[in-house]
């Protein structure tokens, strides 16, 4: 296995919120592409999680969908919050990433779930998960992204 995708993984144990500013300018009010997915794209899975600390009965709705551009990967998906919100509470974020982890694990390939370091849409919460193809178009960008990786090893190796 190529050591190139094994380096620069996350050192912190919790998922970090985006530090990026909004990518939607005041002049360009084009609809957010992530907001338009449901009803227009094939959604693989949906789930709801309760919000914490709000005191009200509210839940976050998430969906898992293939990314439009596979960038040379066999498997490239994202988990997306249905609401157009940049940051969510830590518990919901952890649980959403955990459910996404389970989804990616079922694909049976080594994979990474990445932070939104290089997100094209920085003001709508989502995370991308991808196989670890070292020849993919974005292999170098993955190396420059905080992420956690899962590598399947056979017993005895």
SSE blueprint:
Blueprint: E1 45-50, E2 59-66, E3 76-81, H1 90-105, E4 111-114, E5 126-131, H2 139-143, E6 147-150
Give a written overview of the molecule.
The protein has one domain (41-150). Strands 1-2-3-5-4-6 form a six-stranded antiparallel beta sheet, covered by helices on one side. A hairpin with an 8-residue loop joins strand 1 and strand 2 (59-66). Helices cover 13% and strands 22% of the residues. The protein is built from two helices and six strands, in the order E-E-E-H-E-E-H-E. The chain starts with 44 loop residues before the first strand and ends in a 7-residue tail after the last strand. It is an alpha+beta fold and 157 residues long. The radius of gyration is 16 Å and the shape is globular.
Keywords for this entry:
single chain, 157 residues, alpha+beta, disordered N terminus, six-stranded antiparallel sheet
Decide which structural class fits the backbone.
alpha+beta
SSE order: EEEHEEHE
Biggest sheet architecture: 6 strands, antiparallel
Q: For the terminal residues, how far apart are their CA atoms?
A: 13 Å
Q: Return residue spans where pLDDT drops below 50 for at least 5 consecutive residues.
A: 1-27
Number of strands: 6
Average pLDDT, rounded to a whole number, is 84
What is the gist of this entry?
This protein is α+β, with helices and mostly antiparallel strands and 157 residues long. It has helices at residues 90-105, 139-143, and strands at 45-50, 59-66, 76-81, 111-114, 126-131, 147-150. The protein has one domain (41-150).
């Amino acid at each position: 296995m190529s050591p190139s995708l094994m380096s620069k993984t996350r050192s912190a144990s919790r998922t970090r919120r985006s530090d990026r500013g909004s990518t939607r300018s005041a002049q360009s009010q084009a609809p957010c592409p992530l907001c338009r997915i449901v009803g227009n794209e094939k959604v693989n899975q949906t789930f709801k999680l309760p919000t914490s600390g709000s005191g009200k009965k509210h839940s976050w709705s998430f969906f898992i969908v293939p990314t439009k551009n596979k960038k040379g990967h066999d498997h490239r998906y994202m988990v997306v919050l249905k609401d157009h919100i940049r940051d969510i509470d830590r518990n919901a974020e952890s649980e959403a990433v955990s459910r996404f982890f389970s989804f990616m694990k079922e694909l049976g390939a080594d994979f990474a779930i990445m932070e939104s370091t290089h997100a094209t849409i920085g003001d709508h919460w989502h995370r991308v998960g991808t196989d670890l193809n070292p020849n993919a178009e974005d292999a170098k960008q993955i190396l420059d992204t905080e992420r956690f990786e899962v590598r399947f090893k056979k017993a005895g190796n």
